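Fill in residues.
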């Protein structure tokens, strides 16, 4: 089989790239190692920046998001027992974010792809890429017991942190930068109304907590936990008790609890690979970089990468102009590092660091007081939260 772009991975990066390329008249095939149901079962990001909303519109998959998504004009910071609102809309000259889950984005992209009968191989086994340092890269895999080969002009590695694409690059050709945080996030999804109509990010002596949502009847909550904790140790009751203990009295009183429909622990990591291009292989999304989830940048970075990449492939195939593919890595990395910095900073500000003691807690509280008291500091937080320009 031949195609212009072979996309590895049907997460948000791969599916959005597929849809943008389809709109641009570029031929692409997607190869995914899991089933579509498995991909949809992963509960992850929840907040979309304006640039991501625009990308979904360009891809023609924004209708349900505008009907069912929740536009948010602000969020709250909770510290020393009191909440303080960050008015995103006022601080950024009219920008806001959209609360719409990654599961829903993925579902909309899968639906659009199926409607156009675009080729996707789910449940692909033994996916391997080769010859990407030449003009004729190849993807091989097994599908329904049959051995398949795709010959493409380019391979887009959208296969996440544990994928095969980055791992296939000779180690001397890439440089990686990494920071591991000494804690994780225990997340619970439950069909209960959210405690507040906006997100609450809490810094407490017991650790970080986040109150988020998927709709007005479905909540997503997180508490910072030790990396050694196992999900099985956390009963629903234990989770709700810990979350309530990290909220201010009014929110604690208002919190409605119920049975969890998903519970998981995610370790926190910052990670960047440089460069993001090796010959005819291009990395995008989590395959190239990871941010800790504080600030919700992961999915949004995946979206900006594939916007750059779709444009680069389009100009290559329609105008024979290689400028876009030649500058892709540098352009993406410049935006990636700004989001890495913000996610690292917001994570460092909001969490308890077991080794750092009470001095660190006091400095965090002073910085939080400065953040909510200074227009300049609030503006910087808001500008980064709604997303830097794409
Ligand atoms: P994905 O979503 O990981 O998709 C990659 C896809 O590639 C497939 N794959 C392969 N396919 C073929 N062959 C192979 N050898 C393959 N290896 C892997 C995988 O099955 C998968 O379908 O990466 P993508 O598309 O770059 O999207 C990035 C986002 O998913 C990610 O940045 C965010 O979800 C990060 N993230 C969060 N971001 C937020 O903004 N807010 C959050 O609350 C949040 N929670 C999370 C997260 C990421 C998590 N991970 C990676 C474990 C919670 C978790 C647990
Ligand atoms: C989520 O709803 O899952 C979420 C929201 C905001 C974040 C991280 C995760 O910063």
């Amino acid at each position: 089989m031949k195609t212009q772009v072979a996309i590895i991975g049907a997460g948000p990066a791969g599916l959005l790239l597929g849809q943008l390329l389809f709109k641009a008249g570029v031929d692409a095939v997607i190869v995914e190692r899991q089933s579509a149901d498995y991909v949809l079962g992963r509960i992850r990001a929840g907040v979309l920046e304006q640039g991501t909303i625009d990308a979904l519109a360009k891809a023609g998959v924004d209708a349900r998001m505008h009907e069912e998504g929740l536009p948010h004009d602000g969020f709250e910071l909770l510290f020393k027992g009191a909440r303080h609102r960050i008015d995103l809309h006022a601080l950024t000259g009219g920008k806001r974010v959209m609360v719409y889950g990654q599961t829903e984005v993925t579902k909309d992209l899968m639906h659009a792809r199926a409607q156009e009968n675009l080729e996707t191989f789910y449940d692909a086994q033994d996916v391997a890429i080769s010859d990407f340092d030449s003009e004729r890269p190849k993807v091989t895999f097994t599908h329904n017991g049959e051995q398949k080969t795709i010959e493409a002009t380019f391979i887009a590695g959208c296969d996440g942190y544990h994928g095969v694409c980055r791992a296939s690059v000779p180690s001397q050709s890439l440089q990686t930068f990494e920071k591991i945080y000494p804690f994780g996030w225990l997340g619970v999804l439950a069909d209960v109304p959210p405690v507040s109509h906006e997100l609450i990010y809490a810094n407490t002596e017991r650790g970080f907590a986040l109150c988020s949502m998927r709709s007005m009847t479905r909540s997503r909550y997180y508490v910072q936990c030790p990396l050694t904790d196992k999900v099985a140790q956390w009963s629903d009751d234990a989770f709700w008790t810990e979350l309530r203990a990290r909220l201010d009295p009014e929110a604690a009183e208002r919190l409605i609890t119920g049975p969890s429909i998903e519970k998981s622990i995610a370790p926190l990591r910052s990670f960047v690979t440089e460069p993001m291009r090796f010959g005819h292989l291009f990395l995008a999304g989590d395959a190239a970089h990871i941010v800790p989830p504080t600030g919700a940048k992961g999915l949004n970075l995946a979206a900006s990468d594939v916007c750059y990449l779709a444009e680069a492939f389009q100009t290559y195939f329609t105008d024979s102009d290689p400028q876009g593919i030649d500058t892709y890595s540098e352009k993406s990395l410049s935006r990636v590092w700004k989001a890495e910095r913000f996610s690292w900073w917001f994570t460092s500000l909001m969490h308890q660091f077991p080794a750092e003691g009470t001095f660190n807690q006091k400095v965090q509280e002073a910085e939080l007081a400065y953040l909510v008291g200074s227009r300049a500091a609030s503006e910087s937080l808001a500008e980064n939260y709604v997303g830097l320009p794409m």
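The mean pLDDT is 97.
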